[in-house]
Write the structure tokens for this entry.
Amino acid sequence: MKDVDRTTKILLACGVLAATIIPLFIKARFLQHILVMVVLYAVLGEAWNIIGGYVGLVSIGQAAFFGVGSYVSSYLFVEYGVNPWIGFIAAGLITALFGFLVGLPVTRLRGRYFAIATIALGQVMKVLFENWERVGAATGLMLPLGKEGLVNFQFHTSKLQYYYIGLVMLGIIILFMRHMEKSRLGYYFKAIRENEDVASAMGINRTAYKLIAIAISAGITGMCGTFLAQYSLYVEPEYMFNHNISVTIALIAVFGGTGNILGPILGSAILLPISELTRAWMGSTGTGIDMMIYGAFIVLICVYQPEGLMGVVRNIQARTKAQVQQARRGANV
Amino acid sequence: MYLQLTVGGLLLGCIYGLVAMGLSLIYGVMGIVNFAHGAFVMVAMYASFWLNRFIGIDPILSSPLIALLMFFFGVIVYHAVIGKVLEGPFLARLLVTFGLSIFLINCAQFLWSPDYRMVENPIFRGIRMVGPVFIEVPKLMASIGSLIVAGLIYWFVRKTKTGLAIQAISLDRMAASLMGIDIERLNGYAFGLGCACAGAAGAFLAEFYYIFPDVGTMFGLVALVAVALGGFGSTEGALIGAILIGIIETVGGFMVGSEFKYALVFLAYLVIVIVRPRGLLGWGAD
Amino acid sequence: MSSHAKLVATGVTKRFGGLTALNEVSFTVGSGEILALIGPNGAGKTTLFNCLTGFLKVDGGTVEYNGLNITNWAPNRICGLGVSRTFQVVQVLQGMTVLENVMVGAYLRHPRTAPARESAIAALERVGMLDRADALAVNLTLPEKKRLEVAMSLATEPKVLMLDESMAGLTPTEAAEASQMIRSLRDEGLALIVVEHVMEAIMPIADRVIVLDSGTKIAEGSPAEVVSNPRVISAYLGDKYAKHVIN
């Protein structure tokens, strides 16, 4: 068991090192773009994981939070010239509050009723923003070009800076989730997922903890919205509230495995390059064949890899462990 | 004016009802929330469009054929995909039909481009004055057709041997299989029937509605909301929910502006489900 | 023995549609006392537990804890006060380990992880399950799950503990151990309400017994009084068993 832990640690350290250094040598803008998307969706996947994986409330409407966050910072910037970093924090806070308010009624629902409610929420938000003249309705907002640099959260010559900002976000959320897993919050989240009646019998205020989870998840997702807004320098409802964002986030979690930290990162690292590459190779003609492949891919994952990649990893670990034990037993005899 | 709108909503609701019934049937029997249902409607709309273009059959007349084709399509989809995830985790069962939907919609876009199409020279057209209200003839025919098909399906499920076996599965899988019911085969039939509902509805819609790859998405979502409103697992509930939605959509859309009509439908879902977490007539676990 | 705790139910009534599951049930239980709750199947024992702990809303009557009216409070608040329960159909957190299960209970009084873990380990030791601490709850046998449930309840450090058929399925030796544990909990000053089918185990240690039949309390008293009560015998125990206990 200890050996397995040690290997995992070494592998993790190598992974972190690779994620930090290798991108420095990547000059092709498209590859840089893929890297940015990978870290962005890894963070989104982790945010989903808090509510979907730990508390067990499956959301297919994360785009609602994503979109709100992107609009908060963009509107503040366009209208009042507020620095995007302040907008970034504001997006996190306001979206968390939004998640909390939405959660008040919605967290009473369970299972598919909750899932469909989140879909409905995503659709409603999109329609509202498409018709809200103040924020540009269907055309959205263009973010004015400013001076390149960290202060303005804008980079024009390279996409790598975005990647590293995303990587820092990912690092922070991983640290947060590691802490959460080992604290009362994480235990209570899992208890609610496993059995709501037992959770209340153990003195857990389910509603409060579900609201905490949805607020944290929404807040992080909203900050990711700001990140994408700064990355593409425009926001519009069709782009920021797109239903496919919600589906992709949930899919990453399924593919990687839910309820653990590594799952969404693995899921994003494999899924996003595939989806971006098919889009680049086949999507430019607008024939839809890229999305066709993507759809087929979702079906294949659900049919052949429904436990997620972490399920595979765990199976292998269990098998090696059994083999090691068997070998030991053999040696003792 | 409101009478006019309510009648319009009622007609629309009947067509939604047929789509929703198929969705409810599939859910009731195998516990799958079929997010691809709208895409099935779309496939059926294209099928009727091409039948009309090449052979010249009117969509409403071709609806039995389309329903039959969609039945077989559904059986194939069940055995190729759905049957394989039934024992899988919740999330996989939820997302698999999303994938299917994205696949089908983009297949249509690849094969037939994103252009809007319309059936030329449908048999039924124009507007008639019935009493104090104007009624669009194709819509009227489509909703009558929907009610007939819904009635047929209802009869099939309640009265025939196969239908009763399907019902038995939805009540108690284990007991049904112990009694010698071939669950795999009947699940396939049930999924096929659900698709046939979507197929017939698609044919009816093709008579008067634009046809494009993404056309089904809203029908699917609206049907989903109807099923949730009625309560998952209740066929009658689905029909009632659908009619309610048809009316909310037309009357409410008129009152707050038609761009908000779907937002209104979803808001209605949120409100009703929050008051009654299992829908109007729902039963069973979450 | 810390503070004195007292749970008072007055005229608790619960109806399901036309069926009256509980009809004006009243009783009192205090620290250092074991109250056995018996009655035939469907008598309303579990329903009573659910009403006392907030899992079901009562249709009439009140529940008071140390003079505080806690009728229809949310289950988690009742647990927070120090009234804890186990479930008849065993309920544990399947996907978590035994220790994690108990820690969920322990976090109620110990928000930080290290003390919570210590307290959880103590609770596990108490029910004799420390050796299974790392097992997944889903892999436990039914009696083990029942013991785990007791440990989880204990970890919330209750003043009043309600056990719903915690001895079902235990071997005679295990049942004897369990009743020993229940007795020692009483001696530490807990108030216990015990629903039990294993009469041999519970009757000797109960201080008082109340008997429910069809939702109505038909008898209350010491074990000896109750088993000699003709109403109880006809309703539930039967002659053979009554003799067995008296002898």
Remarks:
- The beta strands of chain B are 127-130, 133-136.
- The longest strand of chain B covers residues 127-130.
- The mean pLDDT of chain B is 83.
- Residues 41 and 217 of chain B are 9 Å apart (CA to CA).
